[in-house]
């Protein structure tokens, strides 16, 4: 399996102590390219995933921030397989494309521990719209499109480390989430509850800036 992951963070602006009248602007960019060798009897699975998540908030009181979040994502996967049509064998390609748009609001409480360390928790309420298209070639060629929408609620704790001049890193090690999604023109509906700590680490970059 070959895998390439590129992730970056846009600088976020705010005070470590979350002082009143402070603007918070930031976001993340992630890209994932993966190849799974011999995924089927005919070849590999190749996938690309991209996501951009900007955010902006206003610290209306000491330690408290409220704002909006957006997320634009896209993914593409291609896999090859061999299908039978009578006595004949054909190599077919299945292509899956997904585009998503997420928007919502968040609230944040920040607790400074000292000049270097701070902890904060984000409570998000988000809504999403997704469109997925599956297309296959070969003797059984077809194309189908599925649209869905839903909402989610999540809480994520974070640790901020201030290195110099209010520039530092944010570390997130998990969280709690609930998500509900319904496929349009269908009775299918998914409800999911997630809970996890310590299974993975998300790192972001932040820079502190106070408004006058």
From TrEMBL:
Taxonomic superkingdom: Bacteria
Signal peptide: 1-18
InterPro entries for this protein: Beta-barrel_OMP (IPR027385), OMP/PagP_B-barrel (IPR011250)
Alphabetic keyword roster: Signal
Occurrences of domain Outer membrane protein beta-barrel (ranges): 10-198
Keyword Lipid biosynthesis: no
Name of the protein in its database record: Flavo-specific protein antigen FspA
Lineage, broadest ranks: Bacteria, Pseudomonadati, Bacteroidota, Flavobacteriia, Flavobacteriales
Gene label: fspA
């Amino acid at each position: 399996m070959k895998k390439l992951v590129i992730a970056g963070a846009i600088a976020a602006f705010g005070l470590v102590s979350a002082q009143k009248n402070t603007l918070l602007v930031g976001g993340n960019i992630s890209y994932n390219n993966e190849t799974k060798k011999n995924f089927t009897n005919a070849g590999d699975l190749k996938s690309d995933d991209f996501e951009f998540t900007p955010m902006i908030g206003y610290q209306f009181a000491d330690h408290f921030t409220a704002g909006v979040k957006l997320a634009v994502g896209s993914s593409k996967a291609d896999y090859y397989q061999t299908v039978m049509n009578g006595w004949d064998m054909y190599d077919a390609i299945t292509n899956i494309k997904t585009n998503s748009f997420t928007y919502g609001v968040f609230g944040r409480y920040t607790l400074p521990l000292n000049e270097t360390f701070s902890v904060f928790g984000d409570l998000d309420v988000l809504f999403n719209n997704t469109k997925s298209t599956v297309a296959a070639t070969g003797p059984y060629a077809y194309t189908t499109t599925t649209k869905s929408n839903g909402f989610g609620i999540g809480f994520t704790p974070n640790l901020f480390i201030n290195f110099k001049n209010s520039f530092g890193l944010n570390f997130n090690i998990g969280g709690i989430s609930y998500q509900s999604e319904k496929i349009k023109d269908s009775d299918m509906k998914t409800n999911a509850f997630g809970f996890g700590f310590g299974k993975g680490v998300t790192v972001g970059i932040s820079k502190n800036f106070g408004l006058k």
